[in-house]
Amino acid sequence: MCRNFVILLFFHICGCKELFDFRDKNRGSNCDVVFTSDSVKNGSITSPLYPSPYPGRTICRYEFQGRGKERVQILFQEFNLYHPRDDRDCDNQDILMAFVQIEGRMEKIDTFCGSTLPKPIMSNGPKLKLEFHAAYGSRYSRGFKATFSFIQNFGIKIGVQLPDYPCAFVFNSNETRDGYFYSPNYPGFYPRDTECYYFFHGNQGEKIHLHFSYFDVEGVFPCEAKSASDYVEFSNFVSQDRKYERHCGQLGEFDIDSDRRFFRVTFKSNDRLDGTGFNATYQFQDKVESFTTRSELSNKTAVMKDMTGLATIILFLVTEFLR
């Protein structure tokens, strides 16, 4: 009786709509939790009884409801679910599933099991749901612990975010001449139905050099809509630039250079498949003009004169020999 009172008091204090049923240990524990951004912007979630082992035959649902442009991001601190065999798939194991809303219905985007710490999760809109299914349980399985946040920066903590765009960030040479940038929620799967812009503004006489050290954007070349491809696009203008082809798929390291002091990078995902995105560095560089100095021109002229003189001598010797 006292234990149940303490647990109910704890969940009243933390503001969680959660219910645990301990009346019959054989039935396990069932729980439902709803978090809204109106009441809390960030917090933590755990499996039942964490850090003690969770009971078997348990189903827990964790629902997150944000507002407007908000996205839900989940970051895991610990993950240890019962897995009876060393198997890469999650069949017949305790699992945690993630769902997002696509075209008005909740669709599963990933399933986690075993003891590998999941990468960050991000919703494609203001709603996200996690479902924990514990069929077995074990005295050696502590379950999971994670933090959640309702955010509007897509997990991108660099650059200056522009409020007039759903997802846009500015990098200015006056503030720093080099740095890094990455896709939303990197290194986790980027959210679906997302378009992000990265604007680079250099000073007069500068250009922008980009180096992509990691690139995993779902799609097939030439990365068009008819192949349902996500893509990254480059431009020297605010509008599209035909000079650069779209990039998608799993690519090795590569470099991109602008022609002028302004450059735009666009990341676009659809509502189908996911990738882990990209990680890149940027550098504002001084442009090197191609021109020939007076001294270089004089040296080239002297060399040409020497070669002309040598050719004349060779021609004379050949003529004398043939006589």
Automatic annotation (TrEMBL):
Pfam families: CUB (PF00431). The keyword Iron does not apply. It comes from Photinus pyralis (Common eastern firefly). SUPFAM superfamilies: Spermadhesin, CUB domain. Residues 31-151, 167-285 form the CUB domain. Keywords: Disulfide bond, Signal. The lineage of its organism: Eukaryota, Metazoa, Ecdysozoa, Arthropoda, Hexapoda. One of its GO terms (cellular component) is plasma membrane. This is CUB domain-containing protein. InterPro entries: CUB_dom (IPR000859), Non-NMDA_GluR_Accessory (IPR053207), Sperma_CUB_dom_sf (IPR035914). Gene3D superfamilies: Spermadhesin, CUB domain (2.60.120.290). Transmembrane segments: none annotated. Residues 1-16 form the signal peptide.
